Amino acid sequence: MITNQWYLVCFENELEKGKILKRKIIGEELVIFKTQNGSVAVLQDRCCHRNVHLSLGYVKGEHIKCGYHGWEFGTTGKCEHIPSLPPDEKIPKAACIKSYDVVVKYKAVWAYFGDPEKKAATEIPPFHELSKWPMVYNYHVVKGNIQLAAESLFDSHHINHVHRKSIKTLMGNLHHQKPDYHLSITNTSLKGWYLRDNENSILEKIYFGFDEKVETHFAFWFPNSSKLHLHFPAHLTMPARQMVIYEHFYQIDEENVMMIQITAWHQIFQYTPWFAKWFMLKKSMKIVEEDIAFLESNKYWHSKEKLNDLLIKPDELTFEFTKLWNKNLKQNASTTYQKEATEL
Description:
By secondary structure, the chain is of the alpha+beta class. The protein is 23% helix and 31% strand.
């Protein structure tokens, strides 16, 4: 489980006042809620009294109330009220549960999992477009490998094949040419762009452009976010258009991965926003389902046999991603080991 990171726990529009959401992220069961005054809290989904799920209770004012004996907890995880406790007795100091640091950004709620002293060195991935463009999102539970899920969005050669029935030629195609990746690599991120052949239908070219190449931008931020960004330049009387797909992913437990796909767009179907949302959601659901079939197939074979991937020269992007992934995974494992050794 990868810690010392910010994780997307839900979107703002999922959190109505008084509503409780349940999540399980990197093995930790959570309860998420918004108080009457609009504060957002992420707490351990456990009442410390009799160890039942807080999510079985309800929100009351600024507190979440356990549905078993009515204990009330504030946004910091501290118990603020016990109905059965006589007025002259104090609430025990141990009556508290784990709380998580929360930031609301890019129309989403983010929680930090890890050591407080390492929080300043971590950043929420820059999902800037979500703050200003229309978007849709969907959640998928995958019995797959987290590393392969992290790479799947920007894997340049799979689009022609895996998504031949959904994306078809919209994102352009790659054939025998080796893409010229323009890469920018930091300690925790991989970014770049390359060109794909524009083989759109005539109707698609009228709408998206007649350029011979489609410029494709991509990014990955360790360990939980990927981006695919398409630019369609202005032509004829058509304005410039953009579409961006984000994927945010994390281990739920040892067997399952959560994959959240977010699609945002600019100047596409701008006169029919209702149709744009319906179309983008339907298309994005189909795209993820196509990916999941292969992610789960990979997990199946690796669980049956000790297998290594056979990579070839055109897999340059995979090589760079794998180096970045392994380096950061090793650092995370080292930090976890040091913490456990200190606690022992």
